[in-house]
Structures are given as structure tokens and as C-alpha cells.
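Sequence in, structure out. Go.
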Amino acid sequence: MSEKRISIAVAALGGQGGGVLSNWIVEIAESCGYRAQYTAIAGVAQRTGTTIYAIELYPEAEINEQDPVLSLMPVSGDVDVVIAAELMEAGRAVNRGIVTPEKTTLIASDHRIYAIGEKETMGDGRLNGDEVRSSLKKAAKNLILFDMDKMVLKSSSVISSVLFGALAGSGALPFPRDAYEETIRKSGRAVETNLNGFDLGFTAANGAENKTCTQMHTQLPTSLDNIGQFPEEAQPIITYGVHKLVDYQDADYAYDYLEKLSGINEPELLSETARHMALWMCFEDVIRVADLKTRAERSDQIAAEVRAQSGQIWYGHDYFHPRYEEFCDTLPALVGKGMRKSGFWKAILNPFFNKGRIIRPKTIFGYLLLRFVANLRWFRRFSLRFKEEHKRINAWLDLIKTHADNDLSLAHEIAKCPRLIKGYGETHARGINRFSRIMASIEQEKTLNAAVITELCDAALLSEKGTEFNQVLNNSQLTGLTGSDAEKGEFTWAGSS
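Output:
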């Protein structure tokens, strides 16, 4: 009996349509002469929490006097097909032992939905996707893995229809394509879009579209062709940085980027420096936010996500909460610095900034307001924020170039230090403070080595309070960098404001 039984497990997050997919599998099985049963094993959260759907099929023609006994949950080592709607869900299925190299066909989407634990980590808390992909190849007998989320957007469907198509294309179940499509039609909901998603999934599972590529859409000025002066190994990341900076500001800004990189010759160090500096030079300010909110591609993406039909009108609500400090950052450097320190102006203006507001970019007023702010891009070079960030960037680069010749490992660690700088508001201020203290330690301590810098950076990312970071500073006996004054940023560093 067990040889004729087909065991299927569907792993999905709440809201991804795992129940819909399971119902489709049951319906096609019953229409093709199979006895079917499925149960849902819900996780902690109904929405975005993991749910496992256990499905078992048995051919009616093989049933004699006694009904088959079907399992209520997937059994380790006895699952024929595992379907995962996200990369880490596939990895968790492997950890549960329900994917085996002797038996299991694994069908999974390659995209990521980051867990809360990954998002709330101060540093880069993302799990290693490459390690998961490697384990999937080893764990499954047959692996079908591609980015289904892109196909969802392309077809304006849902991921369950793409997964259903991939299941059909895999040939793991003894049902014809027509039966799959008829099951979708019988559902009576969003038939055409679901059939589009099904078709894309079916085609991809057959290997026709397993590869996707990312292209930069910013047209570079021909005058930026001097990227070729840099070592070949570093050119891809530098090219990406140039594209990003042209999109963020203009071609002159990209030139500044290339000029700053000159003088760093070691390819690995150059690549690391180029990566972090490109991200740093594209710091998030109210001008950048307004620009991104009003781009046509964002409107198209939202329309696709809400499945707006041609001719339908939709409205979005964007929440903005720029603080008084961020307002000062956009002013001319001298004016902004004075107003930021002034208790008088803060008392007068802060009531206008201490509450967030809703802006509707699809209305005339909302769009024009955001475009007005976005068009201040030209003024960014004169702003307080621009001056302060580039002062830090230049001081950081000087340290890298100073140590590149005599201590390459230390230079590498200095190049990685901007990973502490992220976010906005208090998060950004806290990151800048700890980054500056580390840079000051490098300037002041002549015997400092790469291992100490690595330890300091790792400790700085552990918690908001900075207990671990201060402990490492104390243990390292770094002069002038500990105590309450240092915690407030009251110490001297060439790059501090």
C-alpha cells in the first residue's frame, strides 16, 4: 500500500495561499481518481507564521475492502513532494527531516521574506542564503528552485498559482497539465491571472526560465568610461556604485566617488571600500525619500501588488515623520548647524515636526509636494548633512590609505567599519557615535591591530545600550574613548563634527 501512496508537504507562511494550493492539489487528485486527505499544522502566528500542510493521496482503483490509513502529518523519510513558498521555508523543511535524497522532489521559491529576528538585528542579521541553497541540493532527490516572487509580479497572480504550475511542470504527480488548469478554472476566482501564474511556473519548472538577471537601468554618461583604470576584479562593484550614485545625485557625484577611490590599488581592499562608500554616499534624507515615493516604477509595482486592473484608480497613503533634526540637516551647513544647537528655534519649530503626517502621492497636492522636495536634489551638496557625512567619509578614506601599505589586514577592517552606520534618527546617531569612537581609536593607538577592530565592530552591533561595546573598549584600554563623555560623542576625531 505504501508504494502506491503519495505524500506531499506544503510549507508556507500565513497569507501566502498554502491552503489554496493544498485545496487545488486535493481537488485535482480527486478528479483524477485518487482518495485525498490533508491537514494544516499551523505555526505560532496566523499571519506570516509558518504553516505545514500535510497531503496524502491514494488511488481509488487500488482500494479493496479496507480503506487506506492516511497520515495526518508528514513523516520523516516518507515524503514524496515538498513544496516551499520561500527559501528559508525550504531550509526548515530540510531541518525537519521531511526532505530526503532517496525520495523527495523539492519545489521551492528562491526569494526571501526576512524573519523578525533577521530584521531587528543591529548588524546584518540575514541568514546565509547560499548555505541553504547548497543544503537543498544535497538533501533532495530532485530540486526545482527559482524566484517565484518575480513571476507573481509579472503575472499579477499569487505565489500559490506559480507553485501549482511548478508542481505540474515537475512531473512529480501523475496528472496531466489539462487537469491542473481545469482545477484552477473550477475555482472561479481570478482565473486568468492564476492561469498566467501557473503557466510561468510550469515553464520555469521545465528549465526554460530558471535563470534571472538584474540589470541597471541608469544610463551612464560616456565620460564615466574611466572605470577601466581600476583593477579588473573591482570593476563590477565600482560600476554598480557609479550607477547608484548617478541615480542618487548626478554624474559629477559619481566622478567624486571615482576620485575618492583613486590611490587604493589592492583589488580586495578596493572592492570593499567601493561597496561601503557607494552605500554611504547614498545616505537617506528627506530628498531621497520624496524622490523614491514619486517614481513611476514604484506606482507600477504597487498597482501590480494590489492587482489593479487597467483603468482602475487606486490611492496610497504614505506616512512621513521627519524630525526637527532632519529638517536642520537639509538646510545650508552654517544655518542648519546653528539651528540644530539652538534651543530657541527648536522650541518654536519642534511642534511642527513632533507628529507624523499622511501624504497621498496619487493626489495632485501630495504629488507636487513630494516632487518639490525631490527636486531639491541640486541643493543637497550645500546641506549640513552632506557636509558632515563627507567629512567622515574623507577621514575614513585617509585612514584606509594610510594603513594600506603597512598593515593591509587593518586597512580591510577599517574599510568594513561603515557597516555600523545605518538607519535614521537615534539609530543613525548611535551608529555614527560608535563608528567615530572606533576611528578615533585607530588614530590614537599606534599598536592597534585588525583583530581589535573586528571585535569592536562586532560588539557595537550587539545591542542598543552598547554595554558589550564599552566592555571591549575598557578591556582594550583604549585611551580617551571610554566613559560618559565618549558615549555622548564628546571626543576628538578628524571626522567628527
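Check: Strands lie at 6-13, 34-42, 50-59, 81-84, 105-109, 142-146, 318-320, 357-359. Residues 6-205 form a domain with the Pyruvate-ferredoxin Oxidoreductase; domain 3 fold (CATH 3.40.920.10).
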